[in-house]
Inverse folding.
């Protein structure tokens, strides 16, 4: 489970030294909340205001999800304390519906402000996991087929 | 495309910092050893392209933020997010 999401008004920029596949031109980002939408966050480019990537905290929706960092990932992120780690997955509107990419999560060290997009081989076939399974539209029906809970069934506080 | 023939154990050098060595060949499977600076990410191409596609979708999806669901029962405002 992620600790509290980054929510300070103006958090210092995060640096992704290895870039993000497809977006290599952009290395500096901030994670900002999406107004009026508590499910999603925005990874906003500091260099290009038009470039932002939708993110999600995957753990409430996919309780069995495990993001395991290798020693070299920890080195790359200069990660010393587990509580400094934030993990988000990217969200996309795809032909399958609203989906998230469990195979390539973003790992962020809130202390060093370094970020890296990982690739988890054991989730290699879960690049586009639906958040809303069509069968979940009936109230109370758990979309077990997606391997996760629908965000609409997810308990709100 | 530059095409080179190499035997097992031989290498090619790209620039002055990248070396690709043929470790073994077994049928149509080739094992390669890659030495590259730490700051240069190395991916299998199909994985790289798949991550690119999802990342770029996540960027274009951010542009339709206002239509994303915000609460239970609100998915009708994000039709493209729920239809199959």
């Amino acid at each position: 489970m992620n600790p509290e999401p980054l929510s300070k008004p103006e958090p210092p920029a995060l640096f992704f030294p290895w870039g993000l596949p497809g977006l290599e031109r952009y290395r500096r980002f901030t994670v900002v909340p999406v107004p009026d939408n508590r499910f999603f966050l925005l990874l906003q480019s500091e260099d290009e205001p038009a470039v932002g990537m939708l993110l999600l905290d995957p753990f409430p929706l996919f309780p069995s999800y495990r993001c395991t960092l290798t020693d070299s990932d920890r080195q790359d992120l200069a990660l010393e304390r587990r509580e400094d780690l934030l993990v988000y997955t990217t969200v996309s509107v795809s032909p399958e519906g609203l989906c998230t990419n469990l195979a390539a999560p973003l790992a962020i060290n809130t202390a060093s402000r370094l970020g890296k997009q990982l690739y988890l081989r054991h989730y290699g076939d879960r690049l586009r996991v639906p958040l809303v399974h069509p069968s979940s539209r009936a109230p109370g029906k758990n979309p077990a087929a997606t391997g996760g809970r629908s965000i609409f069934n997810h308990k709100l506080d | 495309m530059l095409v080179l023939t190499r035997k097992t154990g031989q290498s090619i050098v790209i620039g002055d910092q990248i070396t690709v060595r043929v470790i073994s060949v077994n049928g149509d499977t080739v094992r390669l050893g890659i030495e590259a600076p730490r700051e240069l990410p190395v991916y299998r191409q199909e994985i790289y392209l798949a991550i690119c596609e999802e990342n770029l979708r996540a960027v274009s999806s951010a542009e339709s933020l206002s239509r994303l669901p915000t609460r239970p029962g609100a998915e009708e405002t994000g039709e493209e997010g729920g239809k199959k």
About this structure: The CA atoms of residues 72 and 78 of chain B lie 12 Å apart. The longest strand of chain B covers residues 18-26. Residues 11-65 of chain B form one domain. Chain B touches chain A through 34 residues (CB under 8 Å).
